[in-house]
Amino acid sequence: MTLSSAERPKYEREVDVDSVFLVEEDLNDGTPKSKYIEIPPGSRSRSSNNVTFSSSATSNAGTSSILESFTPKDIEELAQLLKPAIIGHTDTDADDDDHDEMEFDFDLKPAAQKEEAALMSSMYMSKRDIETFFNEKEKEEIEWHNPYGESTYSLFYLCPVNSFAFWYAAFVYFLQITTILLTMIDVIDWDGTTGLNLPPMVDVSVTIAQGVALFQAVAFQSDLIGAVSKFKEGFHHEVLKEHPGATYATWFLSCTAELFAGSLLLVTIFVLIMQVDTVLDIMLNFAALEFMANIDDVAFSLAKTGFIGNRLQGAANNVATFRVRKRPASDQGFLQRSWKAGVFFLVLLILVAGWVTIVAFRTSGQYMCNTIIVNMGDEFVPSLGTFNGLYDLDSSAGSGLEWRAEYVERRSLEIDTPGRGIFGYCSDIKAWTFRVESRGSNEKGDPCDWIARSSETDAYDITEAVASPWFVRDDSFREVVLEPFSVFCFDCTKEDAEGSDDCGGKGTCSNAVCDCEDGWYGLRCEFVSPCPWITIDARTDKFASTRDWADNFQSIDLGNGALVEAHHRPVYIHEYSDGEYDVVMFTGGRWALTSSVFLPQAGRIPSNALTDSQDDVGNDIGNYFKHSFHGYKGFSTNFSVAFLSDFMEIGTDRDLSSPVGFAWYHAIAKERTTKNENQGIGNEISTEFLCRLCDESSNPCLYDGQCNAGECVCSLDSFGSLCEIPPVRNGHCDPFFNLPEFKMDGGDCCESSCASTSQYVCGAEEDGYVSTGYYYCEQPKNKWQSSLLNGAAGSFSGYSMDLSMGSIAVSEILQDRVRIYDKVGSSWVLRDTIIGDAGSRFGAGVLGLSSGPFNVVSNPSFKAPLTVAVQDAYRRLQIYKCNFEGCTRSQEFPLVFAFALSKDGTVLATSLLVAAGEAPNVIRVYEAQEGLFEFRADLNVTRNGSLADVSSLSLSGDGSTLAVQTQMKEFDTNLGFSVATNEYIVVMAWSRIVGSYNMETEIRFESQLNTLGYELSVALNQDGTVLAHGFPNCQGTQLHVHARNNDGNWIARAAPAMNTTGCIYNERPEKNNALSLSGDGITVAFRVGTKVRVLVWESKTESWDDVSDPFPSTHYPIALSSNGKELAIGAPEDGIGGVTAVYSLPGRKECPAGMSLLRLSLTLDRLPGDVVWNLVNNSTGEILFEQESYPQEYTFATILEETCVPADSCYVFTIYSNDNRGLLAPGQYAIFMDGVNVAQGTFSGLFGREEFGSCASCPEGTELFSMMMLTCGPMELVLLKVINQGESGIALHADSTLDGDYDGTVYETCNEHHMSVDCAAPFFSISYSGCLDTTECYGVQVKSQFKHTAYLELVLGKQRVNARPNAVCGGETFFVGQKDKCLQEDWLNRKLQMFAN
């Protein structure tokens, strides 16, 4: 029988043969033909012995086709060789009957493998027969199945352990388990009390949805169901025949891993379902977690489709085609057949039981917080803060599937109060609320009668209601936001467990409160033990009201480690002897200060007044605060406080265990209650507490103070319990506090802002006898500080004035007096008042002030000697001498038109009125001799043969140069005063030569006619090398400055630009002091109309720059200090009696780069004439300063010298005492380099020496040796010899070097120093310094053919030897060093003379 083309099937078979013979039928004659088809060996699968061969029968018009057919015999023979597995029959084109395909899949059994198969027969099989045959085979195939499915767990089972497929499955399993575990870790609250983080209550619909979702979770849990099925199927041993790697171990691993993953995922899904509180969230979470159950299936699908590689694809295909024979149903009992259903319902039952248990716990409130902690602000309702603290769950408030808890304030229940604070839920407004209800009432309080409420919410847990704002009512009954507001669950996670995590490992938690270990404190042991002793911070004010309050308070320790508390914070008291006490206590939200007088029961409950239920703490005050006190005044009729602190917010940095660090306010009544008025905060006060007991780690002493047994030992002059008060504004500059946070040491480091105190003098130390200056001043250099010297009413103060070295003289002409002020820091302190003749208008003329030839500063025993020259309206010039005791008049000069007084007080020049009505044209010069001015010369100024009128005079600071400003004028009868008849003004400078002045040069400048007859001004600097002159005029103010060069020629400097804007034309100056020049000549102050400008000469640009904006002025005199940093402007018409404004410029002398500021302070003793000193740059030999004695009036004076020096040089300061007595107290010296004290002290004996700067130090084993000898001459020969053992010697050179060969050569040296001592001839001094070995003994021998009084002093390290007067020149030897060594030898018949200090 021949098959038609429509019946031609397609065969796909897997065979283990290399070739197959097929039978063909020719379409033309129907003759069957055989065909042998080779199967290429390379087509075999690497993972099996099978190969696949496919052929298809197709029909196309005009072409031949191959007809494949098998006879029944062929099928039978194949059936013997192959195990058939019908894959199926497919019709690829239902409309094309000519193309019908059938697919067959044959797996060759290993036992029946043949090298080739030849199937040849002449019999043919019909299509029906074939279909019948395969239908029968399909029935047999049903008995074969794959019990493990297509998943990576099958790869675990079937693939060898060392195969790539096995480890791919392991990786997928690890990924799945990790994902599930991470999800579980996230959903479970590992620190919570339940661990499952379940909501305390949900809606009924959510509860039902949770139960339904559990059934779905079990039904769709493929891994769990699959694992159960595999365990039921068991292990098939015949699998090993085709899959040797499929051992019992891998089977068990596969089943167990799948069971574990499914169970773990089911638990995670259960927890998630139980955690959510909406139906939608249940479904979303369930759907979201399904992807974790399908991870293994997805991974297998990727492998099977070849995305992971060919090897893995082949392994996946083998797993997919894996078959085993089913176990006959007849061999299974009822339990075996029902096992999967039983497991399903068992798992479901377990989950339902868990669900029911959770629902039961919810309805009984098991998942609600037993204790919460509440923090409510009190801005609008002051009483709310008093109800902060712990609240406990009221178990009697209700139960059921949908109910909300109530929480009652624990403190209200602990004490006998008439009410209690409660949190509940008001269904009417759908909000959580707070209320205060009466205690013991038979009727339940209404939660809707609220004091505070949440936003609208359906939350069953009050802690969830804090995410949205809470509200209270203000005074206008408007609802306003309550801030702050917080609620936290405060349960113990482990009750009564030592070292509980709730207590930070520092205590045991019980009933939401920790019992802390020693040293710890707080509800959660979050604080170290609170400070037991607090005191008011001395930097702040004390508590001030109608009564005095205590400054110090202590906590009450009951002896057992417990403290008396109020609202879980310690109580601090200051107890008085009469039983009354001041108390600082916590009221729930704020600390409060009150007195026991204002507390109920006077703040005490004696033990005999306690009830049976109240335990005695052993302290009356403790009994009161434990059993009676509550911060809410509605519970008491006699309760008020005086002060309240800032609000304390729980859980923030303001949550503190004591009142230290809180700001304080006056307490005022704000909220009326049934019994009292609750108090809120009023005005803030400047009061703060600090802990009085110091601790190096937690409460250290401030500003480098040292803590010693709880008490601070302060340094840096700070003071207070914790050294908290910095020593600012005490008159002493401390660089440590010279910072903006301390307001630059309170201004102590700048002269313009420092104020002396009883402890310190500004700019000084050591009781005021060392002048430190103001090196650390950090104020802006161009910011002037002003001080006002106000005159007495009607005094017309400031009509004339003068400045000199920290002193100022100010006239008050209507009261005929001149006041003398000394500057101490930024203050001007009145020294004395000079009274003139009544009605003389004392001070109406020019005023002159001199502070002497030396740069001195005042100290407690000395005030700079001043010379004051005062002119009255009668043209009388009176001279006053002022010292430490006061001012006395010394001389008087009549008919003086103008005068000048040198700043050193040594020269006085006057222009005289020869006769009434005549112009002043005679200049008379005086020099100071023994305190009085002695006449030296009269001078005339001529111009074109005529005497010129003298308008003004000026002397240089040292009196060496005189400048005279003149003009030719005539009296104008129409105008009533003199006017200039020339267009020029002559200025003449003079130089003093031995008691007289000769004209040095003539300086002229052109100008317009001075038609108003303004008086002119002229000024010289300290050494007479700079001259300023000019006159004020609204028509064009003019200022000219000339400087004398090294050749003695006067060179004009560029004139500064003048601005007369605002100048009133008819303002005529009353005085000629319209300009003033600094000592160095680079700063000039000049009046321009109603303004005063201060200009500084810039040598680089050769121009004048304004120091600041112009100062307000009138047409009265001005004065500039010699250092250019103080400006005085008189305004006698201002105020009630006239004002003198003194402006001071802060800062210090600036040094160029590479230079340091050197400052020497030397305070003399009672014999200033015996002091001789010098300061030398030892690197260059330059003498920086030197002085030979001082006048007696400088007793105890503080001499000040300051200059810029190279920073890298070595400097030597040497000071001598002519009478060999040293420098006695209060005399001392101090040297500063850039503000740092590098040398300070005094000395005894002949001399003192200090070396500082970049000086070479002595080598190790040696020390500095110094020798000084003074003798009255004439000395013809001085022999010096320093001798050590062995008669070898060290010769001394005058240049302080050592002779290299040590041959004992004697050198002559006579270094002459002029010293003003009572000696017939000048002193001669011989000095030497060098490094000597300290282990040797040295002798010094001096010989002279003339014996005169002499002093010898030797210093080696700290050893000092002084020789007696008259004993030096006799040839005796004096020793220094190791004395014992010197005595061991016979030294040239010498006599030992050694005197140690």
UniProtKB/TrEMBL annotation:
SUPFAM superfamilies: DPP6 N-terminal domain-like. Residues 514-525 form the EGF-like domain. The chain crosses the membrane at residues 164-185, 248-273, 341-361. The keyword Cell division does not apply. One of its GO terms (molecular function) is Notch binding. Gene3D superfamilies: ntegrin, alpha v. Chain A, domain 3. The keyword Electron transport does not apply. Residues 30-64 are annotated as: Disordered. Residues 43-64 have a biased composition (Low complexity). Keywords: Membrane, Transmembrane, Transmembrane helix. This is EGF-like domain-containing protein. It comes from Seminavis robusta.
